[in-house]
Amino acid sequence: MAKKRDSGRKETRLQKEKSFSRRDFFKSGAAAGVSAAVLVGPGKASAQGIAWNYEVDVVVCGAGCTGLHAAIRARDLGASVLVVDSNFDVGGKMIHSGGFVSLGGGDAIQARDRAGADPDGFGLTAPLVPPADLEDDPDLLFKDMTDWSVVDASGVGRYRYNDRQLHRAWADNAPLTRQFQLENHVRFARVDGTHFGGGVSRARMAKAMLKLAAKTDIKAGTLSAEDRGDPEKERHSRFNPMRQTPGIPAASVGAPGWVYGGFCLARCLEFSAREKGVRFMLNRHLDEIIREGQLTGRVLGIKASYTPRFEPGTGAQLLAERQHRRARSHDPYPRTQGGHRRHRRPSEQSLRSHHV
Ligand SMILES: Cc1cc2nc3c(=O)[nH]c(=O)nc-3n(C[C@H](O)[C@H](O)[C@H](O)COP(=O)(O)OP(=O)(O)OC[C@H]3O[C@@H](n4cnc5c(N)ncnc54)[C@H](O)[C@@H]3O)c2cc1C
Fold it and tell me: Are residues 82 and 223 in the same domain?
């Protein structure tokens, strides 16, 4: 499966020479979906009688929290990666979230705050919790997550029903995950406790943030007012569709001039993934995982179908923030009231024969 290929556009291009035409693909009844991605060589694929449209080492289903992390990691390890998401933009629930990231186990942000440091010059204020509350290691994290003897009011018992091996793996990987996020353009405010009490003994939560500035520049860690949205009017932006007040001021978590939210995590990870050559296929719902046998054997690929989303009322197709941003610079189409490009709603036939 981990066959190495060149990165870039070539790896996901339509493999015309190996497959019959898309019309034949649909006529054959081999698959009713619109696109398919394959994880193995064409020999296996043709054995299934399926014409594969794309070929990559790793297909990730969902461009949300787990999907973006997984995609970047696979790409870092040298795989060609395609992320398929049924939504019109990346981020999943993560982009609507508060951006509270509880990791710990002695992670780099705990260490930074324990030292009272501000190595990146974010203009952070003094740490919010005493150094002793930031002394942590993976064993303590594992114990906190699994110790049934903790019955205090803030204990979140349901965590403790989880699989022990998963807890162990999570605890061992928590500091690495924080490091991974830091290396992929994510910035954090001061540690300010742990998820809603959590029944744990150390402070492990820090909020993902971006700094308000004239323009959005992920590498510089900055966010424009337009991309933040307008908290006064409770107006969100395409860049920041978070559920709560758009872009919450981070002064209360030690970072004056910054704002926090799930979009700060999601957009930074998206940026990094694209920068590294991860490919995205949005508006595509994963319908089926195709294996060697019906329910057994190696995974050969997936089948996905086109699932565009439209704005109720106007019928305008909802575009990813990135597409919209591009379109704005030379947009030949009239805008709808909501600022969307107006697209003709595709007919059923054109959806089914759409080339990805
Ligand atoms: C309002 C809100 C606030 C939250 N705040 C926090 C917080 O502050 N801190 C915290 O730790 N957690 C928070 N959470 C929880 C956190 O967002 C989720 O636990 C996390 O996003 C789950 O990650 P995930 O990858 O499993 O799912 P998601 O992030 O939702 O990503 C799943 C993705 O998969 C796509 N998808 C699903 N099925 C298919 C398919 N068949 N084909 C193609 N694509 C598919 C979806 O469109 C989506 O993009 C919050 C959640 C919400 C809703």
Answer: no
What spacing in Å lies between the alpha carbon of 106 and ligand 1's midpoint? 25
Distance CA 278, CA 341 (A): 26
Mean pLDDT over 120-131 rounds to: 97
Pairwise CA distance, residues 121 & 352, whole Å: 52
**What is the residue with the minimal CA distance to atom 51 of ligand 1?**
97
CA of 101 to the centre of ligand 1 (A): 13
Residue 74 lies inside a defined structural domain of this protein: yes
Mutate to test the pocket of ligand 1, among 34, 60, 61, 65 (most ligand atoms within 8 A of CB): 65
For residue 87, the 8-state DSSP code is S
Asked whether residue 123 falls in the same domain as residue 187, the answer is: yes
**Closest atom of ligand 1 relative to the 64 alpha carbon:** 31
Nearest partner of 259 among 312, 209, 309, judged by Cα: 209
> 83 CB less than 6 Å from ligand 1?
no
Segment 297-353, tens digit of pLDDT? 999 999 999 999 998 989 999 999 888 777 666 443 333 333 333 333 444 433 332
Span 198-232, pLDDT tens digits: 667 889 999 999 999 999 999 999 999 999 998 77
39 shares a domain with 86:
yes
Measure the CA–CA gap between 66 and 96, rounded to whole angstroms.
14
What pTM was estimated for this model as a whole? 0.83
* Residue finishing a domain among 206, 232, 260: 260
